[in-house]
Amino acid sequence: MLKFLIYAFLFLIAGILQTVIVPHIEILGAQPSFLLILTVVTALRHGSLAGCFIGFMSGLLCDIYAPIEWLGAFSLAYCAIGFIIGQVEESFINLSLFPKIIVLTLADFLKDAIYYFSIGKTSDDIPKIVYSLSLPNAIYTVAVGTILFYLLSMKTERKVEMYKQGP
C-alpha cells in the first residue's frame, strides 16, 4: 500500500511538472516527458503490470491535452511502453545507468511510433515527424532522464552500502 501511495505521489508530481513546468522549459519546441520517465522507472523497478498501469494513467493525462479525435492514442502508447519495458526488466534485472538510458531512448521513439500510427499518420509522414518532433523531444527527455537515473542510482547504491556494512 505504501508503494502505491509513493507512486501516486510521484505521478502527481510528474503530472504537475508535465503540464505546468514543461511548457516553460521548452527549448526550440522540444519538451521533456516526465511522464515517460516515470513510466520507464516504474516498469524497470516493478515489472510490466505496474509499468502498464502507470503508463496508462500517464497516457490518459496526455490524452486530456490532445485533440479529441485522437482520444486514447497516448494511453495506448504509454501503456504499451510500460508493458514492454516491464518485460525487459524481467529479463535484465540489474541494469546499470547506460542500458537504462538506451531503454529510455528506445521507449521514447517506440512511444512516438505507436502514437503516430494510431492517429493515422502514414509512413510518408514519419521521417518529417521523427526529425522535427521525435528526435528533439527524445534528446531532451533522455537528458533529463539521465540526470534522474543517476540520482536514483546514487540513492540505491547508498542503501546497498549501508546494508553491506550492517549494524
The span between the termini is 28 Å
What does the average pLDDT come to? 84
Question: Low-confidence stretches at least 5 residues in length (pLDDT < 50)?
Answer: none
Order of helices and strands: HHHHHH
Structure explained in plain terms:
With 167 residues, this protein is mainly alpha-helical. It has one domain. It is built from six helices and no strands. Helix 1 runs antiparallel to helix 2. It starts with a helix and ends with a helix. The mean pLDDT is 84.
Entry summary:
The chain has 167 residues and is mainly alpha-helical.
Topology:
Blueprint: H1 2-21, H2 34-46, H3 48-65, H4 73-91, H5 97-118, H6 126-165
Helix pairs in contact: 1-2, 2-3, 2-4, 2-6, 3-4, 4-5, 5-6
Keywords:
single chain, 167 residues, mainly alpha, globular
